[in-house]
Amino acid sequence: MPLAAFAMPAAVTLAIALLLFGCALRVGRMRMRHRIDAPATTGHPDLEIALRVQMNTLENAVLVLPPLWLAAVFFGPRAAAAAGAAWVAARIWYAVAYTADPRKRGGGFGASIGAWLALMGMAVWGIAAAAFG
After folding, report:
1. Are 95 and 52 in contact (CB under 8 A)?
2. Nearest CA to 90 among 5, 7, 34, 12?
3. Cα angle vertex 92, ends 90, 96, to 5°?
């Protein structure tokens, strides 16, 4: 498959990097707004929420990137990119909901887990098909 076939999963990977950067910027803004110097991780609920959103998104990004690329290579780049884009959208939903009211983060979290499961399913199916014909 030509390298250009992987442009969509590559774009999703860049979107994930931008999402992580956006989360880090929000943490920095909350530190400045509430005058909380690093390395403190407490001091105002806005900072604590921003840190939780950042860390949970980072933790999940580490889990989503390998199956995104395995699914792209062994299952299909378009399907993998679609599930990866759904993951990005769900993480944005999660971040916005968590920032507004931490009790309402479940929808975005659940949707991101669903996208991850889809990527895992594609990766496993594709690898098994390649390995066992």
Report:
1. no
2. 12
3. 120
Task: Report in angstroms the alpha-carbon separations of 83 from 47, 79, 106, 111, 120.
Answer: 30, 6, 19, 11, 10
Structural contact between residues 69 and 11, judged by C-beta atoms closer than 8 angstroms: no
Fold of 3-132: Four Helix Bundle (Hemerythrin (Met), subunit A) (1.20.120)
Degrees, nearest 5: CA angle 85-52-57: 20
Residue 85 Cα distances to 12, 29, 49, 107, 115, angstroms: 6, 26, 24, 16, 9
pLDDT for 80-98, tens place per residue?
A: 999 999 999 999 999 999 9
Say what the pTM is: 0.96
For residue range 99-130, what is the model confidence (pLDDT) as tens digits?
Answer: 999 999 999 999 999 999 999 999 999 999 99
